[in-house]
Each structure stands twice: as C-alpha cells, then as structure tokens.
User: Fold Phosphotransferase from Aureobasidium subglaciale.
Amino acid sequence: MLASLIQPLQLPSPNKDVFGLETQSSRTRSMDKLLHDVEGLFEAPLRPRSLHAMSEQLQTEFYTKLQSSNICMLPSFHYALPTGAESGDFVALDVGGSTFRIALVHLSGKKTARDGMEIKRMKSFVIDEPIRDLKGKAFFDWMATRIEEVLGPDQKAATPLSMAMSWSFPIEQTSTRTGCILTMGKGFCATHGVEGQDLYELLMDSCRHRNLQVQLQAIINDSSATLLSQAYRDPSTRLSLILGTGMNSAIYLPVSALAQEKYGNRSKSWHASAEHVLVNTELSMFGKDVLPVSRWDQYLNATHDLPDFQPLEYRVSGRYLGELVRLILIEAIETADLFCGMMPAKLQEPYSLDTGTIAVFESDSSSTLSCAASVFTSTHPLPAGRTPSPRDLHFVKQVSRLVSGRAAALVATAVHALWSLQHGLVDPTSTTQSQLAHQARVRATVACNGTVMEKYPGFRSRCQSYLDELAAISGQARGAISIEMALESSVFGAAVAAASESEA
Assistant:
C-alpha cells in the first residue's frame, strides 16, 4: 500500500460519550488530524525570516554553480539586451514540454502599437506521448513537417526567412545559433542517439530535406526568450521566470561572474564586446539540501525516473503540484477515511491528478464546491457511483491550497535569491553597471510566463506578496521586485533574438 511507504499517521481510537456512543466520527477527526499534519509540513517553513534564510542558502549554491557546473548557470552567447528598436519579420519556434508553436512575428519597435510586437500567424501542435517517444532525427523531421504546414507559400520566398527557436531544455551553446543538445527530461526521447550533436544541424537538416526557405539565426532557452521579450518593452527587466509544466529562469549577469571555463572556446571578439551575458540558470535543479521536505516529497523523488535531478521543480511546477496532492489524498483515503475509504481506481495511477483539477478546487468559491466535484469525479469517479461529501471536497481544497501556497513561497524565494545574486555582483566601478545597480534599487522587473503563473488562481499574487516581504527584509521597498506577465514571450523573445542577430 502507498500509505505504508509514505509513513502515514497512526490514528487514535474514536471519542465516545458515557453511553459508549461515538460523539465524533473517527473519519472527521482523523481527516482533521491529517490536515493539521499537512499544514505543519507545508506552512511551517514559510515564515518570512525562514524564507530569507533559504534565499541566502540558495545564493550560496548559485555562486558555487557559477564556477563549477556544466548543467546549470549556462552562459548564452547573447550579451546585449534589445534596444526596442529592432524590426522585421521572423519565424519563431517555441518548443515546450507539451506544445510546439510556430509563429510569424512582425517587430516594428516598441514606440508603435502593441509594444512593437505582433503575431501575424501562429499555430500550435500538441506534444503528446507518441511525439515525446520520437527518437533522434524522427523528432526533428516532425518539427520540420509542422514548419512546412505553417509557412505555406512563405516557404517559397526568394530570400530565406530569418528563424529563431526557443528551446525549453538544456543545451550547451557553441554560438548564438548552434549548440550541443543535452538530455531533455520531461519524458522526451528526442536525444536518443543524437545527444551532444549540434541542434542547429539537426533542425536545419530536416528543413533542407523539405526545401524550406528558412535560416536559423538564433537558438535561445525559453527563459531567456521571456527576458528578451519583456526587455524589448521594459528596460528594467533583468530576470525571467518560467513556471508551467516545468520551471526555469534566466538572469543578466556580468561576464566576470562566471568561471572562465564556462565560456569554452569563444572568440576574442566576443569577449571584447561582452560586458554582460544572458545566463540560463536551469533553476529547477537547485535546492536539494535547502528546500523543505515532506514525506510526500520524499516519495515523489524516490519514485521519479530522475531522483534529485530537479528538486525545486518537483515542488513547484505544474507537472508535480497535482501529483503531490494525489499522494496526500491516497494517504487520506487509506488512513483517514477520505471518501469513506473508497479509492477511485484512476487515482492510483501516478500523475493522474492534473494540476488544472486542483486549480478548479481553489477557484470554486461555492459552499458545495459543486464545480470542483464535477471536474474531479469526471476523471476520478468513486466506486459504486458514490459522490464525495462536502467535507471530502473541502479537504481536497485545503490540501490543494497548502501545496500551491508552499510552491508560491518557494518560487518567490528562488526569485529573490537570483535578484540578490545579481544585486551583489554589480561592479560599482563600471559606469554601465552603476546604472544597472541604481536601476535595481529603484525597480527590478521579473518577466514571467507559464500556465501556473498565468492561470493558477491567486498564484502570482501570492508570489508577489512573498517577494514584497523578502524585499523588505533585504532593506528594499515593497514592490521593488515586480513580477510582470510577458505573454507570448517565447515566440516574441525568439523573434527579438533573431532580429538582434540580423542587425549584428
């Protein structure tokens, strides 16, 4: 039984009155006791001073990885933020954990309508299990076929269309448009047989086989694309955050902040031009010995295909929030008589409780939680046609609130740690960096994107509240670190990257 593996609470015997009758059902009391246990494990570490201490520990980890890691704190080849004057038409590719999007983007400068960015045409393709199972060249052939579908007559243009790709997976970049493909994670098999090969050549080879008139100008991580897209609009942007199926962040740092070995064999001209560099943090990989751990976190990690690989992501991203709630519900069914001890068959399947479902529980403000009940039972019907009681439903809602609330606090803490890292690395002897330091003190914008930040009820506002508390403890004004949604940032950011390369 799962409950025995995750060490459930030992339940007390029911209370009885002097006549030997139960005055409170064991179900009611044990559910309350388990909920109290969940509250202790998920809320106790969230006091502002505790989060600030956690931020300082993360900063120490960041400093270490800036010097030594080859899988996180990866410097891109982009060393200049956009001016906001870049213009032209571009093909933007966004390869995410669950969707492949292709867009034709027009940039006209931020002083024009819509901040100078317009999507002329876009189409999305679901990346489901069969697509994630494609290995090596087959995955890139699938991408090229989709590009051909979207471009239509544009693929026959006399001059190749400039194209850029937002790639939401690790990559060891070797130039602005080339890089060695690394293990993708998220269930993808695309790197099988081609890991370490040039991502540029893998995609362009598939495009050439279809005679597509495109030229890949830039490959950029989705977190870097988000930063670039918002920086095109707002020059105070120095950080980004992606929080959807997965999570990541990009940061703009002095070149000197990273070990020389991180830059590989870059040209002298690159080093002569670059004072700062856009860094893909791979933030999901941090926090193994820093983050609070519950028995459900331990079970999720122990049964994961990649235990300890992405400790922060396992606690905060859309792929795992529903799973953590599922594990708690299973314990509640087996030990606290949730749903009268009846186990919905599908609930026993790992990752079967979607984060979207628990979001419905948090957004349902009715006393009966009728909407949440309908969504839950449509995918997880109880045996014998039984229905959850109001107490059952409110238990699920409270557990969802605790799991998502902790996630919001941890995300804010990680963002604060990155902001503090950036703030501490500014060199006051540099005029440019002095200006950056002044700007950071006045206002720092964190460009964010992803379904959890955008759609999960109250998540972004909770993150902002925790950030305000952490900023105050750090001696900054509340609101000094502001989270701003950068909608469609992956495609806009890819277009900005392509524009920057075209004008270089």
Notes: The first helix runs from residue 2 to 5. DSSP finds 18 helices and 15 strands in the chain. The longest strand covers residues 99-108.
